[in-house]
Amino acid sequence: xxxxxxxxxxxxxxxxxxxxxxxxxxxxxxxxxxxxxxxxxxxxxxxxxxxxxxxxxxxxxxxxxxxxxxxxxxxxxxxxxxxxxxxxxxxxxxxxxxxxxxxxxxxxxxxxxxxxxxxxxxxxxxxxxxxxxxxxxxxxxxxxxxxxxxxxxxxxxxxxxxxx
Length: 164
Fold this sequence. Notes:
By secondary structure, the chain is an alpha+beta fold. The protein has one domain. Helix content is 30%, strand content 20%. It is built from four helices and six strands, in the order E-E-E-E-H-H-E-E-H-H. It has a four-stranded antiparallel β-sheet with strand order 1-2-3-4. Strand 2 and strand 3 form a beta hairpin. The termini are far apart. About 9% of the residues have low confidence.
């Protein structure tokens, strides 16, 4: 079976949050690819549990979230379809990251159940806007031309070696 090509990301921000169990600290980045699409990528777990380090597209995450009704219960199993053939921890870790970003909130009194934050769409849009601004700033920096420096006049070697 062919290996998926690695997606090259430019890091927009680095984050840490507690796992859903509160037993470990997760590290993740939000990055963009060459086309400016936003991705979330797990980078570390202090608890040592396995996780999928492949980035997950915010478009894919947003697509799953948009299928939910506003007060629908969500468990980590809902995000399992984003991680084929990988650790079962990955979907729970993703849910913890989405909670950290304010897209998902814990339902009080229900163990392991969450729901969409009221403003989750606005938060996703803010992430997309920030990515586009970052892309525009990067492009602007690349198009700025530098004024060539004038080279300093060099003294001929004969003048440097002569003693006066």
